[in-house]
Amino acid sequence: MAVMKKKGNKGLPPISTASLPDVIFMILFFFMVSTTMRDQELLVRYKLPEATEVQKLEKKSLVSYIHIGQPSLAMQAKFGTAPRIQLNDSYKTAKDILDFCAAERDKLSESDRALMTICLKADGTTKMGIITDVKQELRRANALKISYAASRSLGY
Amino acid sequence: MATDKRKVQEINAGSMADIAFLLLIFFLVATTMNTDTGLARMLPPIPPEDQQQEEVKVKERNLFLVLINGSGQIMAGQPGKQEFIELRDLKNKTREFVLNPLEDEDLPEKEETVFDLPDGSKWTYPVSLGVVSLQTTRDTGYQPYIMVQNELARAFNEIRDEVALKKFGDKFESLNSEQRDIITKAVPLKISEAEPRNIKK
Fold first, then answer.
1. Collapsing DSSP states into helix, strand and coil, what is residue B97?
2. Cα gap B40→A53, rounded to integer Å
3. Partner-chain contact A49 B138, CB within 8 Å
4. Which regions of chain B are under pLDDT 50?
5. In 3-state terms, what secondary structure has residue B123?
6. What is the least distance, in Å, from the CA of A1 to any CA of chain B?
């Protein structure tokens, strides 16, 4: 019996956890590479429309965002539920887009200014009226490269 | 002596995992995946105010009107021949308009254009002069608008794929940038967006 027990103990050495850090580091690196820090707080809610022919937005540093949608739940008491435009960290009107574009353009280096892209993130239920106003202002601000944000769907 | 040596050699790496976990959790929380996708478009520049705005005349046969109303219904067709159509038919209609496979007198003209290929040879392709004009009202929803834009893009992408397959033997996506430029010029994405009509109900 005693001999048997000894044999059993020898057959099951403790599992080495020495490679655990390596595994964790691997996951860590994956997340480090795929991370983009959240740089602004959203004040509007939106569910992006769906499309199949979407392209990826390349070079995040060249992209500025305009969010359009209902104020988020916490802000609805103050601002109601009519769709609003969010630029940077506050609600703005279409008139402010001119300044916004100028400011965003100033942030970029001279060679990149022509490549600046405006990404319109608007809720699917928004009316075209407000979108068109924004587009008109963008034309006036000479920010002509735009992208209608849409999530990829597999078709319908 | 012997026991001392062994102690120095073995560094306890047990807490390494904890440190890694800590970092991992931080990045997990701070992560937003790169999910920014969208339909890229170019807006037309605003003409200078002092310049007399010339009416750009487009021949009727070169024009394809797409109108979306407030309830998401789509009306499409050439001037005078518009009809209500379903979204799923829009792609094929657009294709037929741009390609004009039967050289119909009423469908858009084509202009023989010579392209310089990267390998030095020339290539002539009849570039369609058709323009798709997209119009919305102020109370059109954004979702139907994007869906229509998507269908139009799909039509153009299909044509590009076909031309690319015929010319370069590969799909548009897998071409190199020079070839892509040529195909883009051969099949230009001509969607003109008029300012919306102010229709009050």
1. helix
2. 10
3. no
4. 1, 199-201
5. strand
6. 33
